[in-house]
Amino acid sequence: MMHGILPYRDVFEQKGPYVYLIHGIASLMSGRSLLGMFPFEVLSLLMTMIVVYMIAGLYIHKSAAGIIAIFSPVFQLFHPYYTYGDTVESFLFPAMLMLIYSLLRADQENLKLSKAGWAIQGFLVGLTFLMKYTLLGGWIIFYIWIFIEYVTDKRYRDIQRLILWSLLGFLIAIVPWLIYFLVTHSLAAFIHVYFYENMHVYMLSDNSVFAKFLESLTIYSSFLRQDPLIFVCGFIGLIYLMFTNSIFKTWHGKALFVAMMISNAAFVVYGYHAGQVYQYYELAFFPYIVVPSVFLLIQLFKFYQFKITKVNESQIFIGSVLISLFLVLGVNNNILSSKIFPNNASVTLQSTTKPQQPAQIIFGNIMRQQSHGRPTLLNYGSIDMGFYTTSGALPTNYYFQNYNIAYNKAPQIMNSQNESIKKAKTQWVVVNTPAGKNIKQWRGTGSKKISAGNLNPGTKKISKVMLRNYRVVALHTQNFENTNVAYWLLKRKSAKPSD
Fold first, then answer.
1. Quick one: pLDDT at residue 393?
2. How many Cβ atoms are within 10 Å of 51's Cβ, its own excluded?
3. Cis before residue 342, ω within 30 degrees of 0?
4. d(CA 215, CA 251)
5. pLDDT, tens digit (0-9, with 9 covering 90-100), for 445-478
6. Do 382 and 392 contact (CB within 8 A), yes or no?
7. Separation in Å, CA 37 to CA 41, 79, 231
8. β pairing state of 428-434 and 470-480
9. What b/e string do you get for 205-238 counting C-beta neighbours within 10 Å, with b at 16 or more?
10. pTM above 0.85, yes or no
């Protein structure tokens, strides 16, 4: 997948090269599905549990810390913030927790970190910088605060350690990619797309910098209030952290934690209006909810003088796993859309007892069977949705998918796709419309951008030329993002030698 995406100079994308490296490895394991992403999802959860274990282990015995860690997936898998998985916020969840762990360690040791500690943080900064730099808010405050503390106290050796070892870790994370982009002559394109376009095209808010930060904090405040569990663990837990002396040893530690949390919250959804935030962005709020929750559990252990011995250790471990699983099922209902429940709405809206497949699998099979060599495909007006993966088609258009960007901010995306339809450049086209409407009827929502269910901005205007050059060979309806969607597979009418 890497070699099919990175060379496309004009692709708008908010994710960085490390994400594509992960997808590239996943595609080698499972080239026709997203099953290859499963080990990475599991690894992310495992690393989160390890870091939570390390955090709890600073304040309580290891066996109890292990039990507490078992409950951490509840927060990383919280619906609807974790819906389909495969998000940068999920992959970087343990990295953000590792930052908080470093703060807790530093708070116990006069804000001092080891050389390895600074190198790890530098590497994580580089990793996050090249995966999704809007998640760097916590690190920015962490480094600025500690640097000022070092300068104020004239701790010059600590300043030297901070700079040199953080820089080493940072360079380890980014230098291989700088070399890659230089070798492929795509560094300028990467900088233009990843930084300029994301900052000037992808953002929804046109307000001032100060107003955008206020919008971010308003969104975060609303987030903390909209679910009882989040409110208790996030807001009440934060108050507990601030007023107890059993966690942070200094007021600097408390103040820095709050500042990191606020900075993280502000940067995560910076440039977005309330009510227009993609909810998976808000998964990045949860590391700062996990930590208060850990300390609430620690206090419960201590209050009830709960002891884990060799006699009851296995029972407690098994019981904790079962309770954690139960809680995960309570905060995430993805299992209802899995193969355990055949013919669920995400697979098909057809009323039948015969096992069905989703549009992606059905269309992918058709394209591979009826193409000579590798299929050529355009998924018109919408996000990828997995059709390129299941069909084995590599994009032949610069703008092979459409993003959550208004037409007037990047008209070249849809103009290029419309031009591809007019000239019948690809053998196959996938189009979506609301269920119950056909290609000739779908006008779009009027926003001239992707709408709920990743529906395209409309097909009515292009339908005449589309149906002149292509014929419908398959139709499938299923539910996506609470929207009933009809997926249409069209094949080019006039065959070319490559067909």
1. 93
2. 23
3. no
4. 28
5. 988 889 889 999 999 999 999 999 999 999 999 9
6. no
7. 6, 19, 31
8. unpaired
9. eeeeeeebbebbeebbeebbeeeeebeebbeebb
10. yes
